[in-house]
TrEMBL record:
Organism (species): Candidatus Paralactobacillus gallistercoris
Annotated protein name in UniProt: Tetratricopeptide repeat protein
Length: 297
């Protein structure tokens, strides 16, 4: 840490003692511009919370997201920021992925969530109702934008909403995958019925693997990455983005539907080069490419 940064940190600490949090933020920001370290980051986040600037605090936490999940004091700071934003679904997703969650962290979320639900019951119900009718929106993009608001639902309200929406025959495959994976992250242990391209299925989300855990999709990723990184690295980003969309589209059935990862890798290679996929064994790949084409182009 340079002398200039040390001076700024010392000045920030001094004005903190007098309660001048705005000036403290200014000093921390100046220090952070010179050294984007985790230490300065957390000081700046704490000062921003004192000013109720939760949005900027959350953006700074995202810069060191993994670090905030590894240290109990930083995790509590992260969860505190999310509770101030009233992002309770996201709160629980973060809490449940912690390696060593604390009872105090659980109580922090539970108390804040209960208070918010009591004081803002009408707002919660209105958002839940909007999400339950998400397929009434005209485009998939507008549906995805609304779905981002689901983080503001309490955990129980999100689960109820998702259980309802997953039985909607007009729900897109992409949103279906997102909702199922979110229920997994929320450790939903109740059986959930969903439609998979018209076929009714039932799962317990808590028992599902993560969306990115498909062994066969990982094999496809490895095969294409090895080839494209040498021959045509400019196509690698397009392929990676497509594969991520397809992972959601086929979730949680990808490994059952992908019989031959090498054949799929070749199918992706054809698609990337503008060739038509003719192999009937790749009907699910064709379906994914057709469904997600409008999102990428």
């Amino acid at each position: 840490m340079t002398n200039n940064i040390q001076t700024l940190m010392h000045q920030a600490a001094q004005v903190e003692q007098s309660g001048n949090w705005q000036q403290a933020v200014t000093f921390y920001q100046q220090a952070y511009e010179q050294s984007t370290s985790l230490l300065i980051n957390q000081h700046l986040v704490r000062a921003l919370l004192q000013l109720h600037d939760y949005e900027q605090a959350a953006r700074l936490i995202d810069e060191y997201h993994d670090d905030y999940l590894q240290h109990a004091d930083l995790t509590t700071l992260y969860l505190t920021t999310l509770t101030h934003q009233h992002k309770y679904t996201l709160c629980w997703c973060v809490y449940y992925q912690l390696p060593h969650p604390l009872p105090t962290q659980y109580q922090l979320i539970k108390t804040s969530e209960a208070t918010y639900q009591t004081n803002h019951a009408a707002a919660v119900q209105q958002l839940q109702k909007q999400l339950m009718h998400i397929t009434a929106l005209p485009s998939l993009l507008s549906q995805l934008q609304l779905l981002q608001q689901a983080d503001y639902l309490p955990r129980a309200a999100f689960i109820t909403m998702a259980q309802f929406v997953l039985r909607d025959p007009f729900l897109s495959a992409l949103l279906r995958g997102y909702l199922l994976d979110k229920l997994r992250q929320l450790r939903c242990q109740a059986p959930v019925v969903y439609l998979f391209f018209g076929e009714e299925k039932q799962v317990i989300p808590y028992q599902l693997p993560p969306m990115n855990a498909s062994v066969k999709q990982q094999q496809i990723q490895q095969l294409l990455t090895e080839k494209l990184s040498i021959d045509q690295p400019q196509l690698l980003n397009t392929f990676t983005a497509q594969l991520q969309l397809d992972a959601a589209t086929l979730y949680p059935c990808a490994d059952q539907l992908i019989a031959d990862p090498q054949l799929w890798a070749y199918g992706y290679y054809q698609w990337l080069h503008g060739e038509k996929i003719t192999d009937k064994r790749l009907k699910w790949l064709e379906k994914c490419l057709q469904i997600n084409n409008d999102l990428l182009y």
